[in-house]
What does this fold into?
Amino acid sequence: MDQRIGVVGIVIEDRECIAPEVNRILSQFGDVIVGRIGVPRPDHDLAVIALIVQGTADQMGALTGRLGNLPSVQVKSGMTSKRVKTDGEGCR
It folds into this structure.
């Protein structure tokens, strides 16, 4: 299946309660996460996480869907339209 590079933005409100579940889900999808930056804002009881991801549309849908179903979590994502070469693929 075609893999693509993308970004996922996550805003977590009520961070004390829901952050452990978010981290559990992100760990389950660790194979598609290329990079991650998290910015906690304890003064506002929220956190923002930005992910760089590489995977199939199905993988990205599963990740963002699981996160988006959590209470107090907002998720937005964007994927490139260009197919990414995986190991073993040559020029087209």
In short: The chain has one domain: 4-75. The two ends are 16 Å apart (CA to CA). Residues 15-28 form the longest helix (14 residues).
